[in-house]
Design brief:
There is one protein chain. The chain has helices spanning about 1-15, 25-35, 50-60, 65, 115-125, 135, 145, 170-185, 205-210, 250-265; strands at about 90, 100-110, 125-130, 150-155, 195, 215-220, 220-225, 230, 240-245, 270. By secondary structure, it is an alpha/beta fold. The protein has two domains: about 1-35, no CATH class; about 90-275, Glycoside hydrolase/deacetylase (TIM Barrel), CATH 3.20.20.370. The strands form two sheets. Strands 2, 3, 4, 7, 8, 9 and 10 form a seven-stranded mixed β-sheet that branches. Strands 1-6-5 form a three-stranded parallel β-sheet, with helices on one face. Helix 1 packs across helix 2 (about 25-35), helix 5 runs parallel beside helix 10 and helix 8 (about 170-185) packs across helix 9 (about 205-210). It is globular, with a radius of gyration of 19 Å. The two termini are about 15 Å apart. Bound molecules: zinc ion. Zinc ion (ZN) binds near residues 107, 132, 157, 161 and 197.
Length: about 280
């Protein structure tokens, strides 16, 4: 049944794209299953608006930066994780998978580098932004063109970035639901995922995340700062890893370091939301 739906979606996509002949490539199937974005291929059907935008964005970058943006193949069709029952949200430091994928997550939102949009367009990869309301409220519009890119999604990271562990249900609800409410107000879409500030959480956090209408909360396996990726154990990004970075002053170097680390490990960025049922 699923196979039929995917095939039908791929066929519909080919019709929509005016694609003439040829077989449906893995990219097309992955695109149909994964939503509305994919890396352009070097050959094959005419360039999509997205591929055209990526080429233009790459061309517009200063050469020194352009040469640092790796090219990625398309991610495979996603397989959903299993979420726990019992009224709590799921908790993940990585997505359990053997597929050659990793997940880029960017937190807070204090530093609003004008290069982010150009780099996102040039890289053309899925990215999840966990935004803190207090960090973005001086200029929420900065994130709108980022959100409008295919594969980029805004998710919840509280109002004021407190340590949640050990705090009351009501305190956590105010921060977690309140953050989702505000982001929905700003961006017209309610978050479905959550990252607790500093990764600290307890059972109440996961219950509140669930009660606030979200499905899962996330830790990470790698962090990034000053243009360097820090590993927790093995010095290589592993399949399913979630990589954390922030909107910091060294945004350009941090983002390029994350892309390089994923590329060096032979992985391709995938969209976190596509793995959550
Ligand atoms: Zn944070």
């Amino acid at each position: 049944m699923k196979r039929i739906r995917v095939a039908a979606a791929a066929a519909a996509l080919m019709i929509l794209a005016g694609c003439s002949g040829g077989t449906s490539s893995p990219r097309t199937e992955s695109q149909a299953a994964a939503g509305n974005w994919a890396q352009p291929s070097a050959s094959g059907p005419p360039a999509s608006p997205q591929a055209t935008a990526q080429a233009a964005a790459l061309a517009a970058l200063p050469e020194a930066l352009r040469n640092r943006v790796p090219k990625f193949g398309p991610p495979p069709a996603p397989t959903k994780v299993t979420l726990p029952g019992g009224g709590g949200a799921g908790w993940f430091s990585a997505i359990p998978t053997n597929e050659k994928i990793a997940f880029i997550t960017i937190d807070d939102g204090w530093s609003k580098d004008p290069m982010a949009l150009k780099l996102f367009q040039a890289a053309n990869v899925p990215i999840t932004l966990f935004l803190e309301v207090n960090a973005i409220k001086d200029d929420p519009n900065y994130f709108k063109p980022l959100r409008d890119l295919p594969g980029v999604t805004i998710e919840d990271h509280t109002i004021s970035h407190p340590n949640l562990k050990g705090r009351s249900y009501d305190f956590q609800k105010h921060e977690i639901c309140g953050g989702a409410d505000k982001l929905e107000q700003y961006y017209g879409k309610r978050p479905t995922l959550f990252r607790p500030p500093g990764g600290t959480h307890d059972a109440t956090t996961l219950k509140v995340v669930h009660d606030c209408g979200m499905k899962a909360a996330f830790y990470w396996h790698e962090t990034t700062d000053h243009g360097v990726v820090f590993y927790q154990s093995v010095h290589k990004v592993q399949p399913g890893d979630i990589i954390l970075m922030h909107f910091r002053p060294r945004f350009v170097d941090d983002f390029l370091a994350v892309l390089k680390a994923i590329h060096k490990a032979g992985l391709t960025p995938a969209r976190l939301e596509d793995y959550i049922p």
